[in-house]
Amino acid sequence: MTWLSDTWNWLTDPSNWSGPDGAGGLLWQHIWLSAVALIVAFVLVAPLGVWLGHERRGAGVALNVGNIGRAVPTFALLVLLTMAPRPLGPSSLSVIVALVLFAIPPILTNSYVGVREVDPAAVDAARGMGMSGWQVLRGVELPLAAPLIVQGARLAAVQIIATATIAGIVGGGGLGQLITAGFSLQDQPQLLSGAVLVAVLALVVEGIFEVVQRLARPVPVEAERVRRHRGGSRSPAAVGASD
Q1: In angstroms, rounded to a whole number, what is the distance separating the alpha carbons of residues 139 and 131?
Q2: How far apart are CA 70 and CA 59, in angstroms?
Q3: Which pLDDT band holds residue 139 (cuts at 50, 70, 90)?
Q4: In this model, does residue 140 exceed pLDDT 60?
Q5: Are the C-beta atoms of 96 and 36 separated by less than 8 Å?
Q6: 20-242: what CATH class?
Q7: Which residue has the higher pLDDT, 185 or 156?
Q8: Is the model's pTM score more than 0.70?
Q9: CB 122 within 8 A of CB 205
């Protein structure tokens, strides 16, 4: 397999990793673009999804936004953004905006569903203990919904990393530049190396979120108090969060 050995040689050649346009610099650019897009998307819509789920309303908003977001081609959106005037245009900002819009659906939907599907009996028991709406949300609903909320961020993160490769087409940086240059130069080792690095980065991030999701599963003290108040019974939602 010549292509495999050539790709390995490319990846292990220090000269291919040096400089701002080397694999090392482009990898950090890819991580930066992905991290900024994920954080912005999470801050923008996760609180909205949590609030809608807490209020038991807005199902149409959350689900329709998710469906629309999945239907819009990210590449087409990026092309439109790069044609916009400054400060967008062909820049990292246009890539980040496109990635944010792409990340919104799974974060919003999972935040809404996670809180909305918390066992109503646990919520009623918490209110019966005299908890306010904010206390119920903070002490019962959010802890039990945390695994699903993290899963939404996990899905968005992996999708962002894979989609951020299109940034190379518009000069936005990232590992997509390796792939684009590999196509242009007919340099198969470079092209495959870029694809391998994107895949490895996605797998690493997937693993990190898997650990975070597992850590989010233990039932917190406040939810335990609610269950004890109900006589020690465990709701299906609590079982799913703690197992």
Answers
A1: 9
A2: 17
A3: confident
A4: yes
A5: yes
A6: mainly alpha
A7: 156
A8: yes
A9: no
Question: HEC states along 160-215?
Answer: HHHHHHHHHHHCCCCCHHHHHHHHHHCCHHHHHHHHHHHHHHHHHHHHHHHHHHHH
Give the 3-state DSSP-derived string for the chain, with helices as H, strands as E and coil as C: CHHHHHHHHHHCCHHHCCCCCCHHHHHHHHHHHHHHHHHHHHHHHHHHHHHHHHHCCCHHHHHHHHHHHHHCCHHHHHHHHHCCCCCCCCCHHHHHHHHHHHHHHHHHHHHHHHHHCCCHHHHHHHHHCCCCHHHHHHHHHHHHHHHHHHHHHHHHHHHHHHHHHHHHHHCCCCCHHHHHHHHHHCCHHHHHHHHHHHHHHHHHHHHHHHHHHHHCCCCCHHHHHHHHHCCCCCCHHHHHHHC
Angle of helix 142-163 relative to helix 23-55, nearest 10 degrees, comes to 140
pLDDT at 235: 41
Q: Which two tokens stand for residue 20?
A: 């701002």
Q: How far is CA 176 from the centre of its chain?
A: 19
> Taking all residues of the chain, what is their mean pLDDT, rounded to a whole number?
79
Q: Are 198 and 161 in contact (CB under 8 A)?
A: yes
**Contact at 8 Å (CB) between 94 and 81?**
yes
Question: Could you read off the pLDDT of 62-95 as tens digits, one per residue?
Answer: 667 666 666 666 666 766 766 666 655 556 777 8
